[in-house]
UniProtKB/TrEMBL annotation:
Recorded coiled-coil stretches: none
Keywords, ordered alphabetically: Membrane, Transmembrane, Transmembrane helix
UniProt name for this protein: Steroid 5-alpha reductase C-terminal domain-containing protein
Transmembrane spans: 16-38, 50-69, 75-95, 152-175, 187-206
Top-rank taxon: Eukaryota
InterPro entries in UniProt: UstE-like
Organism: Citrullus colocynthis
PROSITE patterns named among the record's database cross-references: S5A_REDUCTASE (PS50244)
Amino acid sequence: MAMGSGPNGSNLKNGVIALLVPLPSILFYLCFLSNCGGGSGLWKWCYHHPLLLVNALFFFNVNLVFWLISHLQSSHWMIDLYWTLIPVMLVHYFASHPLAEYNELRSWVAVALTWIWSIRLSHNYLRREGWQLGAREDWRFTDMRRQYGKNWWWASFFAVYLSQQVFLMGVCLPLYVVHSVEEGLKLWDLVAISVCGCGIGMAYFADTQLHEFVSRNRKLKMSGKSLVPILEEGLWRYCRHPNYFGEQLWWWGLGILGWGLGQRWSLAGALLNTICLAYVTKLVEDRMVKQHYRAEAYRQYQKTTSVWIPRFRASLHKEKNM
């Protein structure tokens, strides 16, 4: 095994790595905070350029360090785990930077929502992986590894890490806006909070239903019985990717927070992420119809069920009445 001599050993080792890997950025930032009062040179630059500083920390500590570790372990598992953690680190960075100015209640709500989102997504990630860290990498990275062959060692830096910086920093820009504008609460804040809350709730229930479906199929496979080809119960009856839709609601809700503070450009990250997710959705569906035991059932599911936005399956009712 590339990541340890056994499951328990690998899990412990990867857990230690995951805890230690962000320390360079954290220690550097704490050092900056203790010197920013009368500092000069590097500390002065860090003081006046909060967005450039956080992008520099991301580039060196995530892109470079994670990339090097991935080559040592022959796996890009860690970026998936930290996708759920980096937004929490970013919201606290934006709130604690010396130049931050904000409405305290709005900041508290943004921090609380980000923590709730992170806990939900982290729980789903660990549950999906059987509570094992680094047991496998995202199947899309595995496919790209085969596609790029010998060039994967350098292409992975751009495809896996630099691209993640663009997406993560983009979708988290509203958290920066929240901590750079000091205005009273508005109606837009209530709209944003509602959208974020609905997104988190929908993603949680959709992922829980998917986890239960996968667990049931795993038991059927172990007992030698036929697998259920597709999940079309609960939220999955009304759209084919309710977990994706819930996640998009969360990011668009954050974007509305920035929009309500007069920074319309803060929606750009949510828009870019939605475009990317549309491509990922296509990859997932192409993968589904290539699996023999569920191909035909999934094609019918595609004909009768919305992709993202939940709606009643009117076309299915028509077919039954014919």
